[in-house]
Amino acid sequence: MNYRHHFHAGNFADVVKHALLVQLIRALQKKEKGFLYLDTHAGRGSYDLAAAEQGDSLKRKPEWPDGIGRLWTRAELPEALAGYVDLLRQFDRERGNSGETPRFYPGSPWIARMLARPQDRLALCEKQPGECAALENEFQFSPRTVVQAMDGYVALRAMLPPSEKRGLVLIDPPFEAQDEWRQIVGALRDGLRRFPSGVYAVWYPLTERAKVDAFFAELLALGPPPTLVGELAVAGDGSALKMKGCGLVIINPPWQFDRAAETLLDFLAGVLEQAPGAAARISWLVPEQVA
């Protein structure tokens, strides 16, 4: 994985992550009381898809045509996905694009900011200096939004529990560090100890199944509350693709979120397929308790 996100921006993984994020935020907003949105690896906030071919040193093939590009002009999207695409279109237009293809893509901070109500609060963490400077520039005039130049994993100790007593934490690391999975588990341990009722969403790539299964085992050892797993593979195990899919672990998912996620992912599996074997999966790592 490459930390500089430009050539990844708008790819299938962003579509999965951000479409589910929109549904999580809207589910939390069914209650009037505000909440904290904490983004541990916020990145630079927005991405110019016209610059997507520029990697760190060599030109790269942009990934957005096989992601948001497949939804941009598609008719008859499910309601949940139509709302997500409408949000992206609004952002793209407000940034000045009048073309037929997308140009400006919002990262998770802008998606949350666009959906936030006056009573909701955003805390955006980014430890990479260049990315954080861009993030600060993006949100310097945004109400109830603070940008922190800090390790997002530390933020779960520093910022939880929130004064609102409600919160959504997005953990979306670059998976550059060898011990990234361990850091995620440690951060969740801290977060759940301080704020057990919070909603925690962890994005992860599907590259090696063994690493994901080991992560699930360590997560189960924490004794977490109800935990849902949603995965989408754009190719089967026999594909040469390095990243064949991605997933989202959601601790304390909102009521009936599993149904919405299943509908959304099933549709995306057909639209985003890159090789035979594409599929979606929803499962409970820790089942909900039935009263």
How would you characterize this protein structure?
With 291 residues, this protein is an alpha/beta fold. The strands form 2 sheets. The protein has an 8-stranded mixed beta sheet, with helices on both faces. Helix 1 runs parallel beside helix 3 and helix 1 runs antiparallel to helix 8. The protein has a domain of 197 residues: Rossmann fold (3-Layer(aba) Sandwich), CATH 3.40.50. The N and C termini lie far apart (42 Å). It contains 8 helices and 10 strands. It is globular and about 45 Å long.
Brief characterization of the structure:
The chain is α/β, with parallel strands linked by helices and 291 residues long. It has helices spanning 12-28, 79-94, 108-115, 129-138, 152-158, 180-194, 209-221, 257-271; strands at 36-39, 46-48, 104-106, 121-125, 145-148, 167-171, 199-206, 227-233, 245-251, 279-286. Helix content is 35%, strand content 19%.
Major sheet size, sense and barrel closure: 8 strands, mixed
Number of strands: 10
Strand-and-helix sequence, N→C?
Answer: HEEHEHEHEHEHEHEEHE
CATH topology of the domain at 23-49 and 117-286: Rossmann fold
Mean pLDDT: 93
Radius of gyration: 18 Å
Shape: globular
Span between termini? 42 Å
Q: What structural class is derived from the secondary structure elements?
A: alpha/beta
Assembly context of the chains: single chain
CATH architecture of the domain at 23-49 and 117-286: 3-Layer(aba) Sandwich
Number of helices: 8
How much of the sequence lies in strands comes to 15-25%
Unreliable residue stretches: none
Estimated helix fraction: 25-40%
Biggest sheet, spatial arrangement of strands: 5-4-1-6-7-9-8-10
Quickly name the level 1 CATH class of the domain at 23-49 and 117-286: Alpha Beta
